[in-house]
Queue: 3 jobs
Job 1
Amino acid sequence: MCADKNKNIVLIGFMGVGKGRTARVLAEKTGMYALDCDDLIESFSNNKIKRIFRDEGEQAFRSLERKTAVWLEKNVTGSIISTGGGFINVPNIRDIGTIVYLHSDFDSIIKGIENHPNAEKKIRKRPLLQNLEAARKLFESRLPIYRDLAEIEIYVAERSLNRVAEEIVERLAR
Ligand code: S3P
């Protein structure tokens, strides 16, 4: 699918946009493995993201993200990597793989989360989604960074995971 089969695909985008779910559909379509940065951080620290934020603070979590980014760059090839919404600030993100930005507008993202059968849990596990106005500001401040990093930008609002994954495959093959 990719010109270089050993290159990772790195999915970036705001919280709740569907990076992890897209990564799994993409894995199914391509035969590549999908890894999730937040899952790696939770297994590495044997702790939940929510608890890391609560007990050690956001900076401790960001430092775990940087450590994970270094580990990924050194050890992982040919995989699909879904990231947390703030992973874009790790210094080596461009060295991990081809960056694909999943874009949606803030209101559609929130609507998507609120309409999910597990909405309450999805919101509860995300410390930076507790205050919607603060989350909107965070989205606005990150948007130019997502766009600047993106080698490919895919619009995902109201589109099926399958269609999104197909478009990623198509655009990577170009
Ligand atoms: C964060 C996004 C979360 C998780 C953490 C911080 C962020 O991941 O990494 O709560 O800073 O945007 P998702 O993007 O998967 O929700």
Job 2
Amino acid sequence: MLVRATTTAPIDTAADTVAIGVFDGKRVAHDVEGGALQRLLDSGEAQTSFRHLAQTHAAGKRWILVGLGDRDRFDAERARVAAATVYARCRDLGTTVLCWELPHRLDDDQAGGFVEGTVLASYRFTAFKSGAKDDAAAPAELLVSDHESRVVTVDRAAVVARAQNATRELQDRPANDLTPTALAEFALTLADAHDHITARVEGRAEIVARGMGAFAAVAQGTDVEPALIVLRYEPPDATGPLLGFVGKAVTHDTGGLSIKPAGSMHRMKFDMSGGGAVLGAMQAIAALALPVRIVAVVGSTENTINGSAVKPGDIVRAMNGLTIEVDNTDAEGRLVLGDCLTHAIELGAERLVDVATLTGGVVTALGSTYAGVFANDERWFDVVQAAGARSGERLWRLPLDPEYADRVKGRYADLTNSPEDKKAHPISGAEFLHRFAGDDVPWAHLDIAGVGYDLGKPWAPKGGSGFGVRLLVALAQAHAAA
Ligand code: BES
Ligand code: MN
Ligand code: ZN
């Protein structure tokens, strides 16, 4: 979908459909045909309660009035939801060009929210559907009309939402299509498309040769080639610390020999969501040409069972020298990520954030509303938390504590990847990773198992959500501004 900001009044644009939001207690700001829209509101057919829709025809166009609710409760997320609601109606109506008339006095994030909500709602995963591929019912163009020029905000929001959709496509692709090699191809394509990105992809032999024994242990259970994907983004004008983005990209997690129940195993194609978010964020950051330096490390493999799969009780040695008892082969994400964190530090990362669908426990604790966040540094936590709040991808902090750290000590080796009792899984996972991140580099771990897919939001009801893309872009933006 084309997206364009304009200062032309909606009535004078080529749009066939105009969307207008109205807050509680407010009137229609710019009416048509002597008050047709206000009359719709006065009659009660249109209402200002949040997400309420009504429509009419006037001046040769279709007009959709959408309730925006309480002005004081309005935020960027409500803008995304309102926009997605309108978009769904537009699809039903056969809209070709939609023009949003922005309410007065929005901040940039709220204005951008209307664009994000529309572009995100337009996402469909149709790669494997036979028949009409080109989505004939979908609006082809979005115009965003305001008195002041919103070009920068609108363009930025479109770039970020498209990158988020690219991540969602990676997520939705099944594991027999999106192999680690296919994910690596996405990274290589990014590097081809952007002057200041370089990519390096290594396979099983290099992962083993580097001494990444934890990552290699997961990958030894599949004949599918794993991939260690490293992207560097270094534009000439960049300043500030080297940011390290680390992502878990398990393209399918069967659990390995500690096998998962069959009922929901198909959803484990989404276990690459963290790595997918890192790649989507790199796409957006490069497209926006943000003056920051980033090294991204994405560890990708299947977690399946061939004849040489790692067995519960096996002991492996990670790249940082620590030995690990693999007591549960389903706690594979921390094995992959541990070595990737070590690698990111070796590559010079000065601030770390890892993104992973790490534990079912975080789904139980926080559902699809907040991602869990852990951090070894208060100031870095504040920065990451602020990026979450700014982007609408919200984070709830869970504790690190020496008492929890004791629980990941191994009986026969330095560490166990899975303490015997069923307590505090998200924290055990984080404390395990903590042993790789250390305390010298500020580090935050985002457990996105609950927010990575099937969000149930109007702009992302089912399938991959692209969670993490907007947050990582906001994090980069915060460093670009500093
Ligand atoms: N990929 C899963 C976590 C997950 C669960 C993601 C549900 C999305 C939805 C991860 O590899 C896993 O299996 N974690 C185990 C760890 C346990 C064995 C210590 C878990 O959380 O049950
Ligand atoms: Mn697992
Ligand atoms: Zn997993």
Job 3
Amino acid sequence: MSTLINPTTGAELDSSPASASLEEADAVIERAHDAFPGWRDVAPGERARLLRAFAAVVDEHLEELAQLEVLNAGHTVGNARWEAGNVRDCLNYYSAAPERLFGRQIPVAGGTDVTFHEPLGVVGIIVPWNFPMPIAAWGFAPALAAGNTVVLKPAELTPLTAIRIGELALEAGLPPGVLNVVPGKGSVVGERFVTHPLVRKVCFTGSTAVGKKIMAGCADQVKRVTLELGGKSANIVFADTDVAAAAASAPYAVFDNAGQDCCARSRILVQRSAYDEFVGRLETAVRALRVLDPADEQSEMGPLVSAAQRDTVQAYVDGATVAFTGTAPDGPGWWLPPTVVESRDTSEPVWREEVFGPVVAVMAFDDEDEAVALANDTDYGLSGSIFTSDVGRALRVARRVEAGNLSVNSHSSVRYWTPFGGYKQSGLGRELGPDAPNAFTEEKNVFIAH
Ligand code: NAD
């Protein structure tokens, strides 16, 4: 693996792991396969206890994990603590699942019909660099709870927390081979998860372009696949809302994690009669954002993850008409200020494409129908917000926007106990929520004649 860089300073880290080769990936997949029958047959109460023990060990190492993410990914320390806590909370939540994998008893003539939820075997989880810890846990916590073993490939840029979490699993008493972390390239390790016949399901989070390749690759073996992909979500602000509150919230809906967030509301639609007031208040809020060293407790936004990502985002900014920006350190490291663009043309790249950086485009609309049409005028459908004081309108618009996760008068996106996933090219299947463990099982139907 190429040398890891601290995005805040541009300095090399001295802890870059080696990239797994194809042969090493195969060996880990086989180890996970060998560990599967033992893990599947662990009594439900014992599997639950082990997941709770894993959560407790993560909790003991929360600060260490958070600091590692600050170093490797440039996340603000406040966010990184939340992310490590999310791993713990997911494990605790899904530790209830082994004892609740209920089948059904279905009325039939001439016998009894029952269903069982059986684990799949080895599950391959491929994660991106933007939220290395939570996204890994959203896959492995329900997969392990349902009795599967896991091979987890972190992103090339941000493998350190996943590797540490794998060590903590062993420390907590999970049997060797149950949760395996395989750092390496997408084109080697990730593709092997897709092609290896012993991997029974691939959970992929990342770009839509790679997601399409993975879906096509999985088709060859009719392999189960979950895709959590890109987004271009809309934040719809109606004039009947508390405009000050909506404008104060908007920066956090898009600039969190320096905009490297699949749920970022990177298009703001504002009803024309409130447009000037909203944009004025947004400017005040954006200029007040504290873009600081992510290790600083006051920091609200850190650097971008890499020089390449910063250059990609800068190219969008160069091609757009910038209305105003916040501030950012000059460097070293991969910094950009939070940037607001006023858009009048829906064909502009900054309006249509997932920028994945601290850039938001604002546009005016006249009525509810136009707002919904603009929000839906995208191939994506992951997330979004609606700000209004009219409950009827909130529900009408929420039902008409083609996206998997919407918030009303809020910019919150993900709760591990509610389902999460995308419409259209933002994904396939759902993660999280109470049903997630079932997505890591086959439902078997058994008819007993009597
Ligand atoms: P990416 O698609 O480049 O990479 C994601 C992962 O896939 C990495 O681990 C990478 O090594 C691996 N990979 C790359 N090529 C592969 C291949 N051919 N076969 C198998 N694996 C391969 O994405 P990224 O740049 O790391 O992350 C940013 C993207 O992730 C954005 O589009 C963002 O919207 C998306 N994302 C989506 C969600 C969601 O839940 N919907 C969450 C976070 C990020």
